[in-house]
Design brief:
By secondary structure, the protein is of the alpha/beta class. The chain has 13 helices and 21 strands.
Amino acid sequence: MDKCAGGCRLALDDNTRTNNTSVPSANTGWPAEVTPTAEYEAALDFAQSGSGHLFVTGRAGTGKSTLLRCLRDTIKAETVVVAPTGLAAVNVGGQTIHSFFGLPPRLIRAEDVKRSRNGRVMRRLELLILDEVSMVRSDLMAAIDLSLRINRGRPREPFGGVRLLMFGDLHQLPPVVTDHEVAEHLESVHGGPFFFSIDALTEGAGTTLLELEQVFRQSDETLLHVLNRVRDGEADENDLSVLNDRVNPVRTLGEGDPYVILTPTNAAAQRINMAYLDALQSQAHSYEAGVTGEFNTASQPTDQILVLKPGAKVILLRNDPDRRWVNGTIARVSRLNEKQVFVEISGREYEVEPVSWESRRYAFDQTAEKVVETVAGTFKQFPLRLAWALTIHKSQGLTLDRVYIDLGRGTFAHGQAYVALSRCRSLEGLALARPLRPSDILFDPGAMGYRDVFARLL
């Protein structure tokens, strides 16, 4: 499993991931190298000795993913980690919700929830950690509740008596509801599309809210102020004016080269990356990933056939064990051959070696009488992706020094503008392809309903 590395105060960006094994501190219960914040301590205390569920949210750059990994590796309870998408599950060393609970990938009704092959695992389960819970629709959340009640044989208890530890930001990654009939069903049956709409989360001891406040990504107070207003749907003409002072259209490949270009669609990002790659006169090399067992294509963190050239701008997708780079570091390919890739970071050259990502499954070990993780499949590839352009969605969790935002015809989902703008460390490093319009900042007031439903921890 990934471990929480670097002092948490120094590595609280959501892109901090490493495979270093941490040794718990005898005094605090945290990994020895972690200096936790008061918010982190409160989360750990609640998870270990509180009652009911905990929903951890917060602005971009407050360290939600880092806290998840630290808690996962510190808490001694029988725990399962799940996420709504394959890639998110791989990143946190867990399993997809649909796979673990055996649920269909469509609108889920009560009759779809049955006894699961993971019934033994569920009966031993004490804590369920859900990452990116903001993407979980109410029908899926209700199915989790019902499945745990059925498979644990405790039908009267919310989630069958299992405690939930949930992470996500509804201002960045809301649930996807594209069909009008589905939206009407979710409204009539569950009270809305959001995970917090279901009754089970307020039954019994209920759910407590921890909203992380300390931002580690930006120290630019002007940018932070504007980002907060964009996040809460309160941006006015003055806020847009601050952002639109950064309009600086890129007209040539050379002008765009220093930036990471963020765009709403995969097609646009791929087109930009291919234009830059084709413009390089150096020889291309292709590297095919090694895939074993069950590893879904949608869960792959980079291309199965990765095409690189010397001079290509790339993003590193895993922390380096020797701490020469972190997940999200931007680099240039300096040289390569059929089996090796070298990159340049801040004037120094390093060899990047292939790494493996694992697709996990949970099982019940009868001999040890406990829940264990098993590896269902692996994906081995150089931890690199072309990075002249990224989709806004794939930039989630990254911290970037120079960002060029090209929204094209506009955003198409709640929170997209906020995600894009909040990737950048400072206003100075931000550039816009065109002025932002109020219509670019899509905001669903219903997403803020969790603040009225859950009691605050701090």
